């Protein structure tokens, strides 16, 4: 009888515990969803910044090339306009050699600049390809994380359903036990009264 009474007292407490556990699980799921949304927003902002920087670099390249070409043209004009007032045969020869050497140097410089520009363009293309690969990898990782979260949510929902289904028969069992105990008491009480009445009748 004492064990049955203890079970009867502990029944509402167990129900309260299960309800509190379910509320805690729901709160944890909400917090995880909020954190995932914030991470996705931060990653999207960083991607936008990278794209804007690459576009700025592309726009600045042709402007730099124009400046270099203008400087080269100015140097050529200055060298062509410069001529001595009194030009002798020797000075003319020297000027020709200087101009020839200067032209060769300019051609070499132009070739070097073109090579550097080509190298820069190749490097930028490689960087863009790497960025695209990184973005693809990040998107794949996000998809994997979302799938894992969905699986976790499904597992948690299944666990909640299992807990609820387990708690329902336990409560029914407690109610049945409480009803059986009350019925036993009533039978015991009426049985005693019947015995007393029979004894009085015999007297």
Structure description:
- With 203 residues, the chain is mainly alpha-helical.
- The chain has one domain.
- It is built from 2 helices and no strands.
- The model has no long low-confidence stretch (mean pLDDT 75).
> Rough shape?
rod-shaped
Give the SSE order as H and E letters. HH
The N- and C-terminal alpha carbons lie at a distance of 34 Å
Please give the share of residues in helix. over 70%
* Portion in strands: under 5%
Rg over CA atoms: 46 Å
- How many distinct domains? 1
- Average pLDDT confidence is 75
Write down how many β-strands occur, each being a DSSP E stretch of 2 or more residues: 0
Helix/strand/pairing class, anyone? mainly alpha
Low-confidence parts, pLDDT < 50 over ≥5 residues? none
The number of helical segments is: 2
Q: How is the biggest beta sheet arranged?
A: none
How would you sum up this structure in a few lines?
The protein is 96% helix and 0% strand. The chain has helices at residues 2-81, 89-202.
Summarize the helices and strands and which ones pair or pack:
Blueprint (H helix, E strand, L loop, with lengths): L1 H80 L7 H114 L1
List keywords for this structure.
mainly alpha; membrane; 2 helices; 203 residues
């Amino acid at each position: 009888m004492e064990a049955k009474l203890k079970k009867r007292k502990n029944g509402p407490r167990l129900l309260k515990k299960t309800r509190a556990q379910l509320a805690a699980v729901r709160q944890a799921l909400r917090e995880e969803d909020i954190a995932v949304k914030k991470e996705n927003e931060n990653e999207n902002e960083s991607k936008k910044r990278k794209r804007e920087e690459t576009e700025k670099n592309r726009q600045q390249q042709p402007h730099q090339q124009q400046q270099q070409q203008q400087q080269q043209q100015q140097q050529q004009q200055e060298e062509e306009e410069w001529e001595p007032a009194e030009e002798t045969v020797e000075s003319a020869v020297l000027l020709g050699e200087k101009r020839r050497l200067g032209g060769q140097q300019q051609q070499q410089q132009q070739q070097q600049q073109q090579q550097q520009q080509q190298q820069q363009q190749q490097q930028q293309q490689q960087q863009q390809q790497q960025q695209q690969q990184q973005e693809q990898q990040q998107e794949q990782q996000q998809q994997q994380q979302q799938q894992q979260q969905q699986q976790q949510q499904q597992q948690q929902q299944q666990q909640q359903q299992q807990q609820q289904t387990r708690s329902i028969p336990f409560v029914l069992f407690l109610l049945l036990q409480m009803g059986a105990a009350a019925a036993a008491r009533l039978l015991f009480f009426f049985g005693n009264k019947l015995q007393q009445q029979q004894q009085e009748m015999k007297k």
